[in-house]
Amino acid sequence: LVQCIGADDNAARMAEIETALRRHLFSNDLEVHFQPQIDLATNQCHAAEALIRWPRNHPLQVSPAMIASICDDRGMIGQLTQFVINTVLRQQMMWQAQGIDLSIGINLSAKTANDPGFAAQVAQACETWSLSPTRLLFELTEDSIVRNERATIECMHALRNIGCELSIDDFGTGYSSLTYLHTLPFDEIKIDRSFIQGLPQQAVSRAIVNAILALASGLKLEAVAEGIERPDEFACIQQNLPDCTLQGNLFCPPLSAADLRARLHTDTRFQPA
Ligand code: C2E
Ligand code: MG
Ligand code: MG
């Protein structure tokens, strides 16, 4: 009985979130925050990742991962991705007018990566905003690409053909077959936070991260270390991995567009906190 009540409660909460999410998507009042990515050698920010945010001051609290997963399950992922792309492009246009030029990473779900019309939609959106697709990078997890579906491969190549960049997100945590590394045109690998967290204490994490970096270097892919949170994690990266891009709360958490602009206006370099 307790389990049944729990399941009912859960179903009711999910229904409430889904209704609210549909409303927010319809009225465009979700937010997109941006987390800077920093060049290890220069401390300069050259790119950022777009991350969806539930509206502040809303009585429900819904995590970004849950927003993405509900959208994926309930047929709203196309709308969410379009909202994020349009928000990013509008923001890039405003930033460029203020002298800020950032490449922006956008997370893609497996379903979007399977959509044969997706690259054309991206090209159309870029044309509408008069912006170059080369300043957009799409992040896919291994689980989205490892099935090696024809539609995904075509979608990746189509995105690359219009000039977008492609990244493998959370690298090392999904089902890795590695064959996709030579069938898909990736530009970047993002090393998952779980390996970064292990760097100070675990020799095995250091070995894995070093192997990923060797792989990235051999394949001429950029490497991004994700979720750097602590000074000792950063110290290990500095000692062992001189050639990578940094993303994590130690340098800067995800910020609203206005806060990021203000931060970049003060200084375009980011130091560990
Ligand atoms: P992700 O793409 O791997 O994004 C990185 C996550 O790591 C973000 O969580 C970011 O806030 C978090 N992070 C960055 N630095 C640190 C750190 O130093 N410490 C800790 N603890 N966390 C850090 P967030 O924003 O909660 O997003 C979670 C996931 O939700 C994302 O993981 C991505 O898979 C998904 N997601 C977010 N926005 C979107 C979106 O617009 N579309 C889709 N399809 N998925 C999205
Ligand atoms: Mg990501
Ligand atoms: Mg990630």
**Inertia-based shape:** globular
Strand content: 15-25%
Uncertain runs: none
Indicate the multimeric state.
single chain
| Overall average pLDDT | 92
Biggest β-sheet strands, sense, barrel: 8 strands, mixed, barrel
Bound molecules: ligand C2E, magnesium ion
* DSSP helix fraction: 40-55%
Order of helices and strands: HEEHHEHHEHHEHEHHEHEH
Instruction: Please tally the helical runs, counting DSSP H or I stretches of 4 or more residues.
Output: 12
Helix/sheet category: alpha/beta
Radius of gyration: 19 Å
How are the strands of the biggest sheet laid out side by side?
1-2-3-4-5-6-7-8
Per DSSP E runs of 2 or more residues, the count of β-strands stands at 8
End-to-end separation in angstroms reads 49 Å
Would you kindly provide a written description of the structure presented here, covering whatever features stand out?
The protein has twelve helices and eight strands. The protein has an eight-stranded mixed barrel with strand order 1-2-3-4-5-6-7-8, surrounded by five helices. It is an alpha/beta fold. The mean pLDDT is 92. The termini are far apart. The protein binds ligand C2E and magnesium ion (2 copies).
How are the elements arranged and paired?
Elements: H1 2-26, E1 31-39, E2 45-53, H2 64-73, H3 77-97, E3 103-107, H4 110-113, H5 118-128, E4 136-141, H6 142-145, H7 150-161, E5 165-171, H8 180-183, E6 188-191, H9 193-198, H10 203-218, E7 222-226, H11 231-240, E8 245-247, H12 257-266
Parallel strand pairs: 2-3, 3-4, 4-5, 5-6, 6-7, 7-8
Antiparallel strand pairs: 1-2, 1-8
The chain binds ligand C2E and magnesium ion (2 copies).
Residues 49, 107, 139, 169 line the site of one magnesium ion (MG).
